[in-house]
Amino acid sequence: MNKHHEPTGPSDGDQITLRGPAELADALPYLMGFHPTDSVVMVALHGNRGRFGGRLRLGIPRSPREWPFVSDQLADCLVNGSERRGGRPDGIVVFLCQDPADGESGRQVMERLRPFAQRLRTACGALDVPVFEALCITDGRYWSYCCPDERCCPPEGNVLALPGTSVMAAAAAYAGIQVRGSLREMEARLTPRQPADHEQVRALDAAGLALVPRILGGAEREEVGAETLALARRLMKRLGENRPLPASRPDADAGDDALISHDEAAAVILGLQDRETRDRAAEWMEGPDAEPALRLWRALARRCAGAYETHAAAPLTLAGWVAWSSGDEPEARVALGRALRSDPEYTFAQLLHQACNEGMDPEALRRCLREERAGRKGARSRVVRTRQATRSVRPQAAARPSAPPAKARPGAAAARGRSRRQEEQRGRSEHGRP
Fold first, then answer.
1. pTM given for the model
2. Which of 116, 105, 131, 148 is nearest to 39 (CA)?
3. Residues of the chain with confidence (pLDDT) below 50
4. Residue 151, helix vs strand vs coil
5. Is the backbone peptide bond immediately before 315 cis, with ω within 30 degrees of 0?
6. Which of 225, 201, 187 is nearest to 39 (CA)?
7. How many C-beta atoms lie closer than 10 Å to residue 46's C-beta?
């Protein structure tokens, strides 16, 4: 589930009024930052003028048997979440977005999802929050589940406005708001190729055999972490020196993939499974490090093929963190959502996902990571100063003059001379000499 909250908006004089289902349908991609495919989106409205508030998105459950439970959960999450942030919603707008299946028409999609829309309206009404509008968007058209007037909402639906031609599109362009394509396209940038790349799987197998015993053994854990970060830093430098040309996102991603070998990707992916190594990699979150780091984490997530899908939680979470830190909340939510889909129990992704969804300022975490980095640098500098001091003492000790030889006691030489003469006299008497 991705819960979206209202960003800092324009001043009252710059606000835009949306009138009717057509303008609501056209505004949805600008509210989310992308076209939400295969999704249910709910947006809270506040005040007499229906100011947009919190919003959430969830993939449409495949089984209709899940719709009642999911509807209750979504309504409760949006209403109670809005209350925690300071305001109970006065109304809700619901969007159901899904492409037709093979052989299915847009109208058939609308009718198939009608029970889900009705269940969502009932769940919101049970919390005393009315649904002002519920729209189905599919196959380039939209239908209203709330408007019975066929003059404005005919059975065949209404055609969506051409992209970039509405008042909302003009206002978004003026405000610098970008729509990054569809949710499916955004997820494709973070998803391994299918079928699985067998060469990459073999490289991951080999890296696992080489690195996992060293990490789990404990003695070489820090060494593996240092090797992982050094290799990641080299890959970031390589990516930074080869900026993608203006091209489609798939082409840009393919260019990044070509710059990273299977063995390099496998070594970093396995190394990032260590929590401390991953946390240190999270420090590349701002400034000139952010852009190449995000490209690297995306590329590594695309390499987690086959049985290594759960290993993608680490690079996906790092990608989500860097995107959030850089102000790109739509990509952050998509990346963190995929990380939790890869490993629902991944704590770092859970915490970031919650913080991003609750509208927290990432600066608090950035400050914490900066302090961690500064603390390590301070500790290293103290160690270096200690070593330099030790080296400066040792030469002095080596140059210290050796103790002078002990001086002979006065008379010692004369005593040795008398003893020698006495021995010679004794020898002559023993041989009969005078």
1. 0.73
2. 116
3. 1-13, 395, 397-421, 423-434
4. coil
5. no
6. 187
7. 18
